[in-house]
Design goal:
Elements (H helix, E strand, L loop, with lengths): L1 E9 L3 H11 L4 H9 L4 H19 L7 E10 L3 E6 L5 E6 L2 E9 L16 H23 L1
Antiparallel strand pairs: 1-5, 2-5, 3-4
Length: 148
C-alpha cells in the first residue's frame, strides 16, 4: 500500500528543492523530519509540508506511522513565468521565474534490527596500526644488528 502527496505550482526552482530532497531519498520518515528540522532552506520547509501531508494520507489508509519509508521523492519543473528587465541602451533581459511540482510516495517497510556492537570482539584500527609499527621497528633493528 502506498501513500502519496503532491504540491503543485510552488514558487521555487526545482534545482533548489532537489538539493534538499536528495538528502531524504530512501530514508524512513522520522529520520527525514530530523534532517529537515536542521536545514535552513526554503525547500526544506516546503518538503516538510509535503511529507506531513503524505503522513496524514498514510494515517487515513491505516498504515503504521513508525514504519513509513520514502519510496520516491521528486521535484519536477512546473510552468515558467517569463519577465523582462530593462537594461542599458534600450535593451531588455529575460528573467525566468521557475515553479515546481513536488511529489512523494511513502510505503510501509520493516526496519532492520540493529545488532549491538561488541567492543571486545572487534579491534580498533588504532591498535592494529600500532602493532604494525612495532613489527616494522623490530625488523629494522634486526637488519641493523645483522649488518654489524
Amino acid at each position: 500500500m502506498e501513500a502519496k502527496a503532491t504540491i503543485k505550482y510552488v514558487r521555487i526552482g526545482p534545482r533548489k528543492v532537489r538539493h534538499v530532497m536528495n538528502l531524504l531519498r530512501s530514508r524512513f520518515v522520522d529520520e527525514a523530519f530530523d534532517i529537515l528540522a536542521n536545514l535552513n532552506k526554503k525547500g526544506a520547509r516546503l518538503t516538510e509540508a509535503l511529507l506531513k501531508s503524505a503522513v496524514a494520507n498514510a494515517k487515513i489508509k491505516k498504515m503504521a506511522e513508525e514504519e513509513l519509508f520514502i519510496l520516491d521523492i521528486r521535484a519536477d519543473g512546473g510552468p515558467v513565468f517569463k519577465r523582462f528587465m530593462a537594461r542599458a541602451m534600450g535593451r531588455a533581459d529575460r528573467i525566468l521565474k521557475r515553479t515546481s511540482h513536488l511529489k512523494v510516495v511513502l510505503v510501509e517497510k520493516k526496519r532492520k534490527k540493529k545488532q549491538p556492537k561488541d567492543a571486545l570482539n572487534k579491534k580498533s584500527e588504532g591498535d592494529e596500526k600500532g602493532k604494525k609499527k612495532k613489527v616494522v621497528k623490530k625488523k629494522a633493528k634486526e637488519k641493523v644488528a645483522a649488518k654489524s
